Amino acid sequence: MTMLHRDRYFSPDPAVRALARSLYDRVASLPLVCPHGHVDPRMLALDEPFPDPAALIVIPDHYVVRMLYSQGVPMEALGIPRLDGAPVERDPRKIWQRFADHFYLFRGTPSGAWLTHELENVFGIRERLDSRAAMRIYDAIEAQLAKPEFRPRALFERFNIEALCTTDAASDTLEPHRQIQASGWKGVVRPTFRPDLAIDILHPSWRQEIERVSDRSGIDIRDYGSYIRALEDRRAFFKSAGATATDHAAVTPYTAELSRAEVDALFARALAGTATADDLHAFTGHMLMEMARMSVEDGLVMQLHPGSYRNHNDLIFERFGPDRGADIPLATEYTRNLRPLLNKYGNEPGFRLVIFTLDETTFSRELAPLAGHYPALRLGPPWWFFDSIEGMLRFRYAVTETAGIYNTAGFNDDTRAFPSIPARHDVARRVDAQFLADLASRHVIEQDEAEAMIVDLAYNLAKDTYRLGEVRDAAGPTA
């Protein structure tokens, strides 16, 4: 028995379905390029067995947790640790049973698609997860996790991951990356420079992060000038460790350059602890300009992820901390907000900016026209809430007519859930095959063009966008 239909996500029209299947088959076995994600590099440095199924699949996955919480399952019952140390469920079997009891909630969702693929293709589970099957499936996964072939590095190789990029704070020592490189293992794991905490001057831990950046760089941060020099030093360190990109989160993509006198005074207020919300807004916009300037100089690809209202649920934030599934998309404006940055750096041949959005209304109205003009700009794939079958299709139909596919960045899985990586790439490759099959069936493009484009979407665009090495000939056989 299999839970995965071979033609899943393809059109019911026989001709389109056959073409989509043919296109998918060309790329199904291509290596996975993972240029942006949140896998903990310590996992691959230590290469220790994964914990129990609940700790691996349920507890760390905010997609899973938020859905169950929305249906009345307390986070304590899922083993989510409380900040006050109050008791939570510790029995992984009880946590797994609750997960299985509610697995029906994920029908029709991307999480349901990923989890089903993961259970069958990674762990060999051939029955549907539900209340009755919960413990059989738990025991089967637990038995697999005890085997050497289910350790992180073995799975990395089995998944055929060509390169995986992590996301690391500006102050990170990158010691796990050093350990991986020193171990002699051939897996390619690269860091990504993410300085959000060093830029968020109102964050409670900002001063501590500045002290760490100062310590790591050897530059005493006492003013704005030394702060910039320290960040430049950290970027150089990341690049020497193999980084090819930076990543930045912001509430809005607002960009504007402050005068030196203005930013000196603002940074002094931040150091004194008297900065305001307006200061944060101005400083973030200025620092995005500075990060773009640095990327022009050092060649690191710049990623920008705006538009998330973080930790919307105060009770959950106060009880369990950040990143527990309570982040909500915001309406976001790009055309005016990005104009200062794009006017100054968007025509630079060495600069590359990858933009993501949580506001689908901007795809055809703003982002595709911007990417279809500025040489530096590429559109990141559908992100977070739209990293789904229908979300990916909406993205392709919305942006391709204006920007084509070659002003997009291919696919990245953007995941913390390491065993789900193959599932996420499989969904993307199937959806892109369906999209191209639809165009070819209507002769918007011809079949040979679709055959070249599917290789680019599945593999070449991500490698090229993130400067991860040579791409392959999209016109030749690939499977």
Write out key terms for the chains shown:
three-stranded parallel beta sheet, four-stranded parallel beta sheet, globular, 479 residues, 2 domains, TIM Barrel, uronate isomerase, domain 2, chain A, alpha/beta
CATH architecture of the largest domain: Alpha-Beta Barrel
> How much of the residues is beta strand, in percent?
5-15%
Average pLDDT, rounded to a whole number, is 96
CATH superfamily of the largest domain: Metal-dependent hydrolases
Number of helices: 20
Task: Describe what you observe in this structure.
The protein is of the alpha/beta class and 479 residues long. It has two domains: 14-48 and 152-465, Metal-dependent hydrolases (TIM Barrel, Alpha-Beta Barrel); 49-150, Orthogonal Bundle (uronate isomerase, domain 2, chain A). Helices cover 49% and strands 8% of the residues. The chain contains 20 helices and eleven strands. The protein has helices spanning 14-27, 41-46, 53-58, 62-70, 92-101, 110-122, 134-145, 152-158, 175-183, 196-199, 206-217, 224-240, 260-272, 277-298, 314-320, 339-345, 362-371, 389-403, 421-441, 447-465, and strands spanning 32-34, 161-165, 168-169, 189-190, 193-194, 245-250, 301-306, 308-309, 328-329, 353-355, 377-379.
Short description:
Helices cover 49% and strands 8% of the residues. It is built from 20 helices and eleven strands.
Layout of SSEs?
Blueprint: H1 14-27, E1 32-34, H2 41-46, H3 53-58, H4 62-70, H5 92-101, H6 110-122, H7 134-145, H8 152-158, E2 161-165, E3 168-169, H9 175-183, E4 189-190, E5 193-194, H10 196-199, H11 206-217, H12 224-240, E6 245-250, H13 260-272, H14 277-298, E7 301-306, E8 308-309, H15 314-320, E9 328-329, H16 339-345, E10 353-355, H17 362-371, E11 377-379, H18 389-403, H19 421-441, H20 447-465
